[in-house]
Amino acid sequence: MKVRIFGYSAIQRLMITLAFLTVSILVLSACGSESAGSNDSGKLRITATTGMIADAAKQVGGEYVEVTGLMGPGIDPHLYKASQGDVRKLDHADIIFYNGLHLEGKMGEIFEKLEKSKPVVAVASRLVESQLLGDPAATGEATHDPHIWFDVKLWMSAVEVIRDSLAEKDPAHAEQYAANASAYLAEMEKLDAYALEQISSIPEKSRILVTAHDAFGYFGKAYGLQVTGLQGMNTMSEYGSKDVSELRGFLVENSIKAVFIESSVSSKSIESVIEGAKKLGHEVRIGGELFSDAMGDKGTPEGTYLGMVKHNVDTVVESLK
Questions:
Q1: Which of 8, 132, 203, 298 has the fewest CB atoms inside 10 Å of its own CB, making it the most exposed?
Q2: Which of the 8 DSSP states describes residue 43?
């Protein structure tokens, strides 16, 4: 658009032109900012950290929510650092869900800042001390095992937290959130019963689950498995030759035939244990890949929480039975 200015000196004309341009820039910036933070669909914008939480939010929220997950397949939440793009997704969300129990340890400061302006909800918030496993290697406030999703009963509590948080933020659709949650919780009840039945089919002496890092404590406690890992509960903890030697000895002593790798942890660590056992004359094979801190690819059964847990149960049973 051309602006013609008559009857003013050159300096006055320049000042008016600059003022006009400044106002135009401010208006355009405001429009851009409003567009970036708007939601034309009218749906509640949710940002979740892990895939398990994002899946639960989709199941409960249904058609009334738009869910963005930060950590996709193969991502280790213990080591995850939020990118600038992640920060924007968190900033534009109406509500944020994260695991808690220091699973997302590197994102704590971000959550503290954002909770001043919007709901930032830890889905583990309703679990009490007696329901949680300790982490003997942890320091400071991070004293609990955060892998609560592997006990389906405990994860049902997380779903209830999501349900109630959505209803509080969007009371107009509270009844639908409750109905969606009820249907999802019923499926989880079936999964919990399935896991108990299948794991119990493994001979008792063979119910030993060995993995790269100790993420399956809740799984073992809930379904009757002895669990041990080369690394601690947090993959930030390093393992050494002593850890490899001790686990190798454990495999030989207990005549364990299969160990498991994880989708979000390098297999090199567990492969070194297998090689060590082989040198002692004990053959150990990889029983399969388990999903621990992340789900499978989108569009696959393992890309959902229910499918991921069922995959783990079936893989363990097939290899240890």
A1: 203
A2: P
**What CA–CA distance (Å, rounded) separates 239 from 231?**
6
Could you read off the pLDDT of 58-104 as tens digits, one per residue?
Answer: 999 999 999 999 999 989 898 899 999 999 999 999 999 999 999 99
15 vs 133, residue with greater confidence? 133
For residue 73, the 8-state DSSP code is T
| Beta bridge partner(s), residue 97 | 48, 121
| 180, HSE (Cβ side, Cα atoms, 13 Å) | 22
Q: Are 149 and 159 in contact (CB under 8 A)?
A: no
The pLDDT tens digits for 140-194 are 666 899 999 999 999 999 999 999 999 999 999 999 999 999 999 999 999 999 9
CB 269 within 8 A of CB 260: no
The CA distance from 59 to 68, in Å, is 13
| pTM of the entire predicted model | 0.82
DSSP secondary structure, 100-152, as one string: -TTTTGGGHHHHHHHTTTS-EEETTTT--GGGSPB-TT--TT--B---GGGSH
For the chain, the residue count is 321
Tracing tokens 């820039």 back to the chain, one arrives at: 25
Amino acid letter at 99? N
* DSSP one-letter code for 46: E
Alpha-carbon distance 313 to 221, whole Å?
A: 14
65-69 β-sheet, strand order: 65-69, 44-48, 95-98, 120-122
